[in-house]
Design goal:
- Chain A has 15 helices and two strands.
- Chain A is mainly α and 331 residues long.
- Chain A has a domain of 206 residues.
- Chain A has a two-stranded antiparallel ribbon.
- In chain A, helix 4 crosses helix 11.
- Chain A is globular and about 50 Å long.
- Chain B has 293 residues and is mainly alpha-helical.
- Chain B has a single domain, classed as Orthogonal Bundle (ABC transporter involved in vitamin B12 uptake, BtuC), CATH 1.10.3470.
- A two-stranded antiparallel ribbon of chain B has the order 1-2.
- In chain B, strand 1 and strand 2 form a beta hairpin.
- Chain B is globular and about 60 Å long.
- Chain B starts with a helix and ends in a 14-residue tail after the last helix.
- Classes of the chains: A mainly alpha (331), B mainly alpha (293).
- Chains A and B meet through helix 6, helix 12 and helix 14 of A and helix 4, helix 9 and helix 11 of B.
């Protein structure tokens, strides 16, 4: 395989960096040319992207199926909401707190999950997702029960000339960039290779000296931390948390985003986030049920035809174009 | 004491629903190594089909059997069309496809029939029966009876008919079965059909209590998972037993353990699943799968 085929049109590092910088510059201009509501929607895209990236580290890279990541999203959101509402702590501090809390929760859930393979892990996490709203309602003293907790949207700090939605757009965007940078370094290095090795051949990985139990539980912890940060950001941006918004369909939405965006792909998280944020909006005009019908059909279609999702599909398309440019694909 | 007997009987009644759905899950797992996350939603959709037939003026039992037949055909079609292409795919692909089915059925039901709750009739008399000092709901007893009849039929089918034998063979050893001329693919499809038919029975029996709406089966399905896990995913008898045990335990815990009540029902099921998977992953009656390294 030539480099051109492997990386498609983005073959040189310099070109890639250029495209990345252009994309970031574009993203920084967007909130000034869009109505505030759109900025709010895009802030949600960045939030979803963080959550999807977290789930992708676990499911895409490490091969552990989670149908219950909505639970960690909820944990992060409630952690932030309780800190802001009950203790009056600033929203920025809720992000690291949610990350640490969810890391611990994920790590602890990951320990028993070590013994569960494939289907059984899917089953246990699916049950977790179903149980979340009930648990949240049960601890009414902390969570405000079914009423949820209403928060205030923070204003831009340091007298920046931005409205609340624009500021939150930049706040979530910056957090997302930092977390994407961390994740891409993580998967490129030693730990990333260990993650993939355990997914593809656990026995060989252990024979090579990879501590599978440790890596798998850490993957669960890091994945939960990412999703928890997304939850905390979402509580800040939406300024409201309630148990029924963290039902089993949130967990399924996250899985759908990961699969459609592209399993085991960093950029896939972004495509998936755009998909799960905007497709339901368009589909809603058809019927209240239409988004989910479309989600289901697209999900199954992706598994049949492009198992690597949008990211993998784009890569293949680019490779095919590049291959045709030099006289047809060689393989 | 009377409360206790009443709670045990209603536990057996809800347990019969879990048993039917758990058996459906186990049949599919045995045949195709798939945990069907859409099992509950398929049952819910079949119940809507029955509701449509009833509204068209069909008598109850005619609609009941028509629905079972439709669900059976639907199950066969789903296996042939949707599951077949991923039969040998990794677990993740299969989980994703059945999750896709889950959301499709859920949204189709919402789209066609709306999300408002609908009452669903019970074929059994309304007056409760009094045995000694114990008051028993007629629907609960009928529900147990229907499930037991279905279980007896399915047992007889697998035990005494050539087709049942062929299906068992196909599930146990596909390669040898194919060599003796069994059409394995179709046997698996029949397994899905039977599972869907069971689910339909469970849905129609539970709907009078829960009311019919697209999210009706969520709670039932988590308990069916718990039942199948407890009994063992590789054991049909275990799944049925697990269903009844889970049903009774759920009711007794809800009545006697005050801090759980009905508010943490799902959490109880979740805890049960995790504990069983940790302590005895093969379940009570399941066989331990030994993997060669």
């Amino acid at each position: 395989m030539t480099p051109a085929q492997q990386g498609g049109i983005l073959n040189s590092p310099a070109q890639r960096r250029g495209i990345l910088l252009a994309a970031i510059a574009l993203a920084c201009v967007l909130p000034f040319v869009m109505p505030p509501f759109r900025a709010f929607q895009f802030a949600q895209v960045w939030i979803y992207a963080i959550a999807l990236l977290g789930l992708n580290l676990l499911t895409g890279y490490n091969g552990q199926i989670s149908l219950g990541h909505g639970a960690f999203f909820a944990l992060g959101a409630y952690c932030a909401a309780i800190m802001m509402d009950r203790w009056g702590i600033g929203y920025a501090w809720t992000i690291p707190a949610a990350a640490v809390l969810c890391f611990v929760a994920g790590f602890l859930f990951g320990l028993p999950a070590l013994r569960l393979e494939g289907l059984y892990l899917a089953l246990a996490t699916f049950s977790l997702a179903l149980a979340v709203p009930q648990i949240l309602k049960y601890f009414e003293h902390w969570t405000g029960g079914s009423q949820g907790i209403v928060l205030n949207k923070p204003d831009a700090p340091f007298g920046l000339p931005l409205n609340a939605d624009q500021w939150l757009y930049f706040f979530t965007f910056g957090t997302m960039l930092a977390l994407f940078w961390l994740a891409s370094n993580l998967v490129k290095g030693r730990i990333g290779r260990a993650l993939v090795a355990i997914r593809d051949n656990p026995i060989a990985a252990q024979a090579m000296g990879v501590d599978a139990a440790m890596v798998k539980s850490m993957a669960f912890g890091v994945s939960a931390a990412y999703t928890g940060v997304a939850g905390a950001l979402s509580a800040t941006v939406i300024a409201f948390v309630a148990p029924d918004s963290f039902n089993v369909f949130l967990s399924i939405t996250l899985l759908i985003g990961v699969v459609i965006g592209g399993l085991a792909s960093i950029t896939g998280a972004l495509y998936g986030a755009l998909f799960i944020q905007f497709v339901p909006n368009w589909a809603q005009e058809l019927s209240k049920a239409a988004p989910w019908a479309i989600f289901g059909v697209v999900l199954i279609a992706v598994i049949y035809f492009v198992p690597t999702g949008i990211a993998g599909g784009l890569k293949r398309l680019a490779a095919w174009k590049a291959g045709r440019g030099v006289g047809g694909p060689s393989t | 004491m009377e409360t206790f007997v009443q709670q045990v009987v209603s536990g057996l009644a809800t347990g019969s629903i879990y048993a039917a759905l758990a058996l459906a899950l186990v049949m599919i797992y045995e045949a195709t190594d798939v945990v069907n996350f859409a099992q509950g939603e398929m049952a819910m959709f079949a119940t809507y089909v029955c509701w449509t037939l009833l509204n068209a003026g069909m008598p109850y039992w005619a609609a009941f059997f028509a629905t079972v037949a439709i669900a059976f055909a639907g199950g066969v079609v789903i296996e042939r069309v949707v599951i077949r292409p991923v039969e040998n795919a990794p677990v993740l692909a299969i989980v994703i496809v059945t999750t896709g089915l889950l959301v499709i059925f859920n949204s189709l039901a919402g789209w066609i029939y709306s999300y408002t709750q609908k009452p669903f009739p019970s074929p059994f008399p309304k007056e409760p029966l009094k045995v000694g000092g114990v008051v028993l709901g007629a629907h609960e007893l009928g529900q147990i009876a229907v499930t037991l009849v279905v279980l007896a039929c399915i047992y007889a089918f697998f035990r005494f008919t050539p087709l049942g034998l062929a299906m068992r063979a196909a599930a146990q050893n596909p390669v040898s079965s194919r060599l003796v001329g069994i059409r394995v693919g179709w046997m698996l499809a029949l397994g899905w059909g039977l599972a869907a038919a069971f689910g339909a029975v469970a849905g129609m029996m539970v709907a009078p209590q829960l009311f019919l709406d697209p999210n009706m089966m969520g709670g039932v399905q988590i308990y069916a998972f718990a039942a199948a896990t407890l009994g063992g995913f590789t054991s049909p008898v275990g799944a049925v037993l697990g269903g009844f045990v889970v049903g009774v335990v759920e009711n007794l815990v809800g009545t006697y353990v005050s801090f759980i009540g009905t508010e943490l029902k799902f959490t109880v099921a979740l805890a049960l699943i995790i504990v069983v998977l940790l302590v005895k992953p093969s379940g009570l009656l399941g066989r331990t799968v030994v993997k060669r390294v």
